[in-house]
Amino acid sequence: MVKELYARWMYSWETRLTTRDENRVVRPLEWGFDWLRPFLDETGLTGHVERMEAAGEGEAAMVAVNEAILADSDRFFAYDTPKDFRLEERHPMLFPTNVRPETLDRDARLRNLAAQGKLPRAQFLRFTSPERTPYAENDLVNARWYPADPKKQEGKPKQAMIVMPQWNADAFSHNALCSLFNRFGISALRLSKPYHDIRRPSELERSDYAVSANVGRTLSAVRQAVVDIRCCLDWLEGQGYELFGVLGTSLGSAYGFLASAHDRRLRVNAFNHASAAVGDVVWAGQSTRHIRQALEEAGLTQDRVRALWAGASPVNYYSKFAGHSSRDPRTGNAAEFAKKVLLIYAQYDLTFPLEYSLQVVKSFHEHGIDFERRVLPCGHYTTGETPFQYIDGWYLGSFVYRAFKALREEASSVAMATAENPATPVEEELASR
Q1: Which of 70, 317, 393, 411 is 20 to 30 A away from residue 155, measured at CA?
Q2: CA 93 → CA 11, 199, 231, 379, distances in Å?
Q3: Residues 6 or more apart from 341 whose CB is under 8 A from it?
Q4: Cis peptide leading into residue 96 (ω within 30°)
Q5: Residue 26, in any domain of the structure
């Protein structure tokens, strides 16, 4: 009885939070092939897609594009390292995505403090994203830089986390986690997702273009997010960092997983709210009901929507993620060098419904992915409320601390073993391949 009452209370609270913003916009279905033109050109699909679209077979053409992405995802998520990395100092601004009075008041206070010179400046990593869009502001990547105190990094490899908050997060979301990591001697880049905060086009109130009924644009946003993460790793390596991780929440979790599946450098992985398929979340989640409305009005079903975003869905990359564990080139031993993984989901989630998070758990087991699991006694939006935000923060912070500690110990063990047993010329040749 108590459990049922708690569930009803939690679902009611979650529903209030997911329905309080009234500036969600229902935009009509668009295939958006133009957003994927570089990939279509590279794979020779452009003419085929154009013919199918002209024949009224846009849906089948988009399914074919997703099949091509899955067949060659390394090409889809490939990139050239930017040449314009730079650090910029400015006053941090909120960039709210809702128009609630309390949010707008907070934004106004911050702007007033900045104008009076009373708001401390912060450092931001800026560079041009390898994925180009029609929006110059979106293509200028933004990541707030939280460097750890050098004294806390002495005597150990330099370590850094890339942090990606949830969909429609303001620019202050997850900053506290970055400060927490600094206390552990871990630096952090708090990465603004495509179409978020300072990257959001002026025509938008919300970060709608990251996920929308424009199928191609949503896929483009996924590609941009993944390559932006990988570019941040390149910059960090240039600063002497050796151990890397990614923490993503909700949509940021999906982006982080896809990046880690395609980049073995991401050894520490914290997935805060996770689901298997983009189409299932869009169709079944409360916070994407306006997108579902547009898809339903176009006559689509959940199964068909799932196929339209297959190339962006973590479920289709579990094998790649499992096989991308860092291995000791001398022994081939994956057990000691596998990715460190934390999976968090919420018992009363109406945005990433529980059944889909449980699918992730089942699939991780089936693919032999070693991971830690934590279950929050709340929902998706209520994770940001007291006391659940502190429970979530404890799970994330303690995991990241322990995971990096384990990596340092592994690195030390390998260094000792290598010193005791130098590689033969044959082993060195194999390791270099």
Answers
A1: 393
A2: 32, 12, 24, 28
A3: 269, 271, 364, 369, 370, 371, 372
A4: no
A5: no
Range of the domain at 361: 2-18+31-432
From the CB of residue 251, how many other CB atoms can be counted at a distance below 10 Å?
28
Count structural domains, the chain: 1
* Per-residue pLDDT tens listing for the chain (433 residues): 899 999 999 999 999 999 998 899 999 999 999 999 999 999 999 999 999 999 999 999 999 999 999 999 999 999 999 999 999 999 999 999 998 999 999 999 999 999 999 999 999 999 999 999 999 999 999 999 999 999 988 889 999 999 999 999 999 999 999 999 999 999 999 999 999 999 999 999 999 999 999 999 999 999 999 999 999 999 999 999 999 999 999 999 999 999 999 999 999 999 999 999 999 999 999 999 999 999 999 999 999 999 999 999 999 999 999 986 544 444 455 445 689 999 999 999 999 999 999 999 999 999 999 999 999 999 999 999 999 999 999 999 999 999 999 999 988 776 666 556 665 554 454 444 3
The reply to whether 367 falls in a domain is yes
Q: What is the 3-state secondary structure (H, E, C) of 181-199?
A: HHHCCCEEEEECCCCCHHH
Question: By the 8 A CB rule, do 364 and 318 touch?
Answer: yes
CB-CB neighbours of 11 under 10 Å: 16
**Longest distance between any two alpha carbons in the chain, whole Å:** 69
With respect to residue 41, please indicate whether it lies within any of the assigned structural domains: yes
Handedness of CA 65, 66, 71, 72 (dihedral sign): positive
Cβ atoms < 10 Å from Cβ of 257: 26
CATH number for the domain harbouring residue 313: 3.40.50.1820
Residue with tokens 């110059």: 136
d(CA 422, CA 412): 15
386 to each of 101, 392, 393, how far by Cα in Å? 21, 10, 11
Contacts of 369 (CB under 8 A, 6+ apart): 318, 321, 322, 339, 341
